[in-house]
Amino acid sequence: MTLWTNAAADHSGDPTVASQSLPRVLVLLAAFNGRQWFDEQIASILAQTGVAVHVLVSVDASDDDTESLVTQWAEQEPRVTHLAHGQRFGGAAANFFRLLAECDPDGFDYIAFSDQDDQWLPGKLQRAHQVLAAGVYSAYSADVLAYWPDGREQTVRKSQPLVAYDYLFEAAGPGCTYVFNKTLARKLIDTVGRQCASIKQVTLHDWYCYAIARASGHRWFIDQQIHMRYRQHASNQVGVNTGLQAFQRRIGKVFAGWWLGQARLIADLAGRGDDAFVRSWRSFNRVGLLRLALSCNQCRRRPRDKAAFALLCIGLAVKGVKS
Fold first, then answer.
1. Is residue 5 domain-resident?
2. Phi and psi dihedrals of 5, rounded to 5?
3. 290 part of a folded domain
4. pLDDT tens profile 249-292
5. Is residue 296 part of a domain?
6. 95 lies in the same domain as 122
7. b/e map of 81-91 (b: 16 or more CB within 10 Å)?
8. Are 296 and 257 in contact (CB under 8 A)?
């Protein structure tokens, strides 16, 4: 599927400048029951300054007729196309993996991820280009401003210094801030294609992509600058972890074995399953979990998350976890 055309509009502020002179970004947008937010989200993407964008949408079979809205956009706006409707994925990860598997990166300088319900500030992609164009980093992500329907706002900081093994236990922040250069984008596309059966077990695409990048030696930049409003609502698959119920839900998943199970799976998919560090805990025995607790400084970025990581590993060692 060839997406890039010379007719793509230029939104740099000067309509006389050819879009081909701007960095070209393919935005992969995964949608599901997002009709009430989609217009605002896609308009904010198309209004990006300093870049030329094309949006490729995949819709998880929806109950609110999101498909029709996406089709309308594609019919009216040459910078929007969509994959065939009708597939059901049951989660954002599988939908994003489908986008990676079926997209055509030819003609683009970067690939970015987008959710269906946020607001991108005009310079979001331009800032990513400024960072990545220097050639030091292959991937970009950033802190965000979360906001709720009642007017509350909260800065979500993910830009703490990277540590040796954080990619095995957490993502680099919200996947909707991710931007990849074309070398890493092709690496991810190829890897998803080869692992199409195994990645069906992966719950979080952003964690997986971060792990593949880091394990492959690609350098990742997490920006303190905020260029996105991160909408929080009842239908978020993964949102900001606030409130007692959200905390209890996530702790329940940890003690049910989901977290370490995903960490082991992602380590294997990233080619790190036989590393000495991973072998030391992959069987989830008590000694291994206690060793993992002692390695907390190298497993999470944020200081309070390091402490929580150690306590959770100790708790799992006491409780026991299925291998």
1. no
2. -135, 155
3. yes
4. 667 777 678 999 999 999 999 999 999 999 999 999 999 999 99
5. yes
6. yes
7. bbbebeeebeb
8. no
